Amino acid sequence: SDRYAVMGNPVAHSKSPQIHQLFAEQTGQALSYEKILVPLGEFQQALEAFRDSGGKGLNITVPFKQDAREVAHSVSERARAGGAVNTLLFESNGRIFGDNTDGTGLVRDLRNNHAVHLAGKRILILGAGGAVRGVLPALLGELPESITIANRTETKAIELAALFNAKLPVKGCGYDALGERFDIVINGTSAGLTGELPPLPHTLLREGASCYDMVYGDIPTVFQQWALEHDAALALDGLGMLVEQAAESFFIWRGISPDTAPVIEVLRQAMA
Ligand code: ATR
C-alpha cells in the first residue's frame, strides 16, 4: 500500500496518523500513514530517505513548514502567499508539489461544521506568526469586509498586513489599539499553550460574534473561556480545523474528499 507520513519535531502527539487511517478506511483506500521525528537540520535527508523508500506524500509540521516550501519544485498560490507548506506530493515524474491546507481547513470548519460565513464580516486575527500567515490567503479568499491582525509585537502585524495587498482592507496593530468590535475573532497566537491570553479589551465582540482558537485541548482553551465570558455566540477550538486540513491533504494525494464529520466525532469522543 502507498506510504504517507507526517514529519515534525516534536511529532509524538500528532493525531494525523489516526485521522488518515480513519479516512482510508472510510474511502476504501489502501495506504499507511506514520509519524517521523526529524532531528533539527536533517529535514532534507529525512525527506529523501522517505521518498526513496517509496513514500508518496508528506504532511509537514513545526518547525519544517518553511523548509518544505523550499524543497518543493512547485507550490500552490495559497502556499506561496502564506509562506509555508504543510503538504507535499511526490509526483511520478520526480517533482515535488507543495501546498498548504491549513487555511482551507479553518475556513471549511467554520463554514461547513459551524455555519460561520466570512464573506462581508469584520475579522480579527490574534498573532502574526507562521500559523497566522499560513491561513491568511484562505481567509482573504472568502472576501470578508476587513481583516485586522493584532500582535504583541506590533511591527510584525503591520509587516504581515502589508504583505497582502488585497482588494479589501488588511491592517496590523498592537493589542492596545483595538478600539472597534468584530464579528469573528481567531486566535492564532501560541500564548494559550502556556495558559496565557493576549490583553484583549472587553468591548471586542459584536453581538452574535464567533470566536475560534486554532489550537485545542482536552479542556476549553483560555481564549475559548474568554469568549464565553464575553457572550460570544460560538467559542470554538481548532480540532475541526485539524481534521479539515487533513481531509484537504488526503484529497491532494488520493483525489477523494473524505467525510470529516464522523472523524471529528471520533476524536472529540476520545478527548472527553
Ligand atoms: P506559530 O508558528 O505558532 O505562529 P510563531 O511564528 O513563533 O509560532 O508565532 C507565535 C505567535 O504567538 C506570535 O504572534 C507571538 O507574538 P510575538 O510576535 O509578539 O512574539 C504570539 N505569542 C506568543 N506568546 C504570546 C503571549 N504570551 N502573549 C501574546 N502573544 C503571544
From TrEMBL:
<dbReference type="InterPro" id="IPR013708">
    <property type="entry name" value="Shikimate_DH-bd_N"/>
</dbReference>
<dbReference type="GO" id="GO:0005829">
    <property type="term" value="C:cytosol"/>
</dbReference>
<feature type="binding site">
    <location>
        <position position="86"/>
    </location>
    <ligand>
        <name>shikimate</name>
    </ligand>
</feature>
<dbReference type="GO" id="GO:0004764">
    <property type="term" value="F:shikimate 3-dehydrogenase (NADP+) activity"/>
</dbReference>
<dbReference type="GO" id="GO:0009423">
    <property type="term" value="P:chorismate biosynthetic process"/>
</dbReference>
<feature type="binding site">
    <location>
        <begin position="14"/>
        <end position="16"/>
    </location>
    <ligand>
        <name>shikimate</name>
    </ligand>
</feature>
<feature type="binding site">
    <location>
        <begin position="151"/>
        <end position="156"/>
    </location>
    <ligand>
        <name>NADP(+)</name>
    </ligand>
</feature>
<dbReference type="GO" id="GO:0009073">
    <property type="term" value="P:aromatic amino acid family biosynthetic process"/>
</dbReference>
<feature type="binding site">
    <location>
        <position position="214"/>
    </location>
    <ligand>
        <name>NADP(+)</name>
    </ligand>
</feature>
<dbReference type="InterPro" id="IPR036291">
    <property type="entry name" value="NAD(P)-bd_dom_sf"/>
</dbReference>
<dbReference type="GO" id="GO:0008652">
    <property type="term" value="P:amino acid biosynthetic process"/>
</dbReference>
<feature type="binding site">
    <location>
        <position position="77"/>
    </location>
    <ligand>
        <name>NADP(+)</name>
    </ligand>
</feature>
<dbReference type="Pfam" id="PF18317">
    <property type="entry name" value="SDH_C"/>
</dbReference>
<keyword id="KW-0560">Oxidoreductase</keyword>
<feature type="binding site">
    <location>
        <position position="102"/>
    </location>
    <ligand>
        <name>shikimate</name>
    </ligand>
</feature>
<protein>
    <recommendedName>
        <fullName>Shikimate dehydrogenase (NADP(+))</fullName>
        <ecNumber>1.1.1.25</ecNumber>
    </recommendedName>
</protein>
<comment type="pathway">
    <text>Metabolic intermediate biosynthesis; chorismate biosynthesis; chorismate from D-erythrose 4-phosphate and phosphoenolpyruvate: step 4/7.</text>
</comment>
<dbReference type="InterPro" id="IPR022893">
    <property type="entry name" value="Shikimate_DH_fam"/>
</dbReference>
<feature type="domain" description="Shikimate dehydrogenase substrate binding N-terminal">
    <location>
        <begin position="6"/>
        <end position="88"/>
    </location>
</feature>
<feature type="domain" description="SDH C-terminal">
    <location>
        <begin position="238"/>
        <end position="268"/>
    </location>
</feature>
<feature type="binding site">
    <location>
        <position position="216"/>
    </location>
    <ligand>
        <name>shikimate</name>
    </ligand>
</feature>
<comment type="function">
    <text>Involved in the biosynthesis of the chorismate, which leads to the biosynthesis of aromatic amino acids. Catalyzes the reversible NADPH linked reduction of 3-dehydroshikimate (DHSA) to yield shikimate (SA).</text>
</comment>
<feature type="active site" description="Proton acceptor">
    <location>
        <position position="65"/>
    </location>
</feature>
<comment type="subunit">
    <text>Homodimer.</text>
</comment>
<feature type="binding site">
    <location>
        <position position="245"/>
    </location>
    <ligand>
        <name>shikimate</name>
    </ligand>
</feature>
<dbReference type="Pfam" id="PF08501">
    <property type="entry name" value="Shikimate_dh_N"/>
</dbReference>
<dbReference type="GO" id="GO:0019632">
    <property type="term" value="P:shikimate metabolic process"/>
</dbReference>
<dbReference type="InterPro" id="IPR041121">
    <property type="entry name" value="SDH_C"/>
</dbReference>
<keyword id="KW-0521">NADP</keyword>
<feature type="binding site">
    <location>
        <position position="238"/>
    </location>
    <ligand>
        <name>NADP(+)</name>
    </ligand>
</feature>
<dbReference type="GO" id="GO:0050661">
    <property type="term" value="F:NADP binding"/>
</dbReference>
<keyword id="KW-0057">Aromatic amino acid biosynthesis</keyword>
<dbReference type="Pfam" id="PF01488">
    <property type="entry name" value="Shikimate_DH"/>
</dbReference>
<dbReference type="InterPro" id="IPR046346">
    <property type="entry name" value="Aminoacid_DH-like_N_sf"/>
</dbReference>
<keyword id="KW-0028">Amino-acid biosynthesis</keyword>
<feature type="domain" description="Quinate/shikimate 5-dehydrogenase/glutamyl-tRNA reductase">
    <location>
        <begin position="116"/>
        <end position="191"/>
    </location>
</feature>
<feature type="binding site">
    <location>
        <position position="61"/>
    </location>
    <ligand>
        <name>shikimate</name>
    </ligand>
</feature>
<feature type="binding site">
    <location>
        <begin position="127"/>
        <end position="131"/>
    </location>
    <ligand>
        <name>NADP(+)</name>
    </ligand>
</feature>
<comment type="similarity">
    <text>Belongs to the shikimate dehydrogenase family.</text>
</comment>
<dbReference type="InterPro" id="IPR011342">
    <property type="entry name" value="Shikimate_DH"/>
</dbReference>
<dbReference type="InterPro" id="IPR006151">
    <property type="entry name" value="Shikm_DH/Glu-tRNA_Rdtase"/>
</dbReference>
